[in-house]
Amino acid sequence: MKKEELNFAKNDNFTLTMIPGSFAKKMRTCLIWQAIRFMVINIKMLVVVSKSH
Fold first, then answer.
1. What is the DSSP letter of 49?
2. Are 18 and 7 spatial neighbours (Cβ–Cβ below 8 Å)?
3. Rounded to two decimals, what is the model's pTM?
């Protein structure tokens, strides 16, 4: 079993919450990636709002 597959395996207290892998943790803490995501989300919101007005 791969290290990442352990995130989906049943554990002792069996919760349905997934544990993020190493790649997801790095992306969540990378400030450059967060800035890019922020800009993309804001552009999407501007498109939606502009369509309604």
1. H
2. yes
3. 0.59
Q: pLDDT for 9-51, tens place per residue?
A: 665 666 667 778 889 999 999 999 999 999 999 999 999 999 9
Task: Give 5-45 as a DSSP string.
Answer: GGGGS--TT--SPPPP-HHHHHHHH-HHHHHHHHHHHHHHH
CB-based burial, 34-44: b 16+ in 10 Å, e otherwise: eeeeeeeeeee
Structure tokens at 44: 């999407």
Amino acid making up residue 33: W
CB 19 within 8 A of CB 5: no
For residue 6, the one-letter residue type is L
Diameter of the chain by CA atoms?
Answer: 52
